Amino acid sequence: MLVVICCAAVCLQLPYTVLYLLNMDKDSLWPDDRHTPTLRAAIYLAMKVADVFATASYALNFALYCVSGSAFRDGVRRICRRPLRQPQQRALTHDAGVTDRSPYLSRSALGNSGQIRTHLAA
Fold this sequence. Notes:
Layout: H1 2-24, H2 26-29, H3 36-68, H4 70-81
Helix pairs in contact: 1-3, 3-4
């Protein structure tokens, strides 16, 4: 199945690559100025169509990986089913873990006797 994925990527990227190279050397390949506006318009249109195919290769790669690989499918399922974690609200900390909103423990809050003291903002 990896061969199919690679062939699909090459087939969808190749037209854009060829047209890109043609566009870079169009003046040396076609030095005649009679067909220049028509040729430029044709190459531009062909590049835009090929760009759509090249971009579609990314979506096709995802679909092919989903169809072909059970480990990939399981990983996507695990990511999609993971509950969204709420970001923890952290207050701006000042010296030694003392905050404006809530008490925090800090290393300096440990006294010599090993008892924990909390620092509260004034």
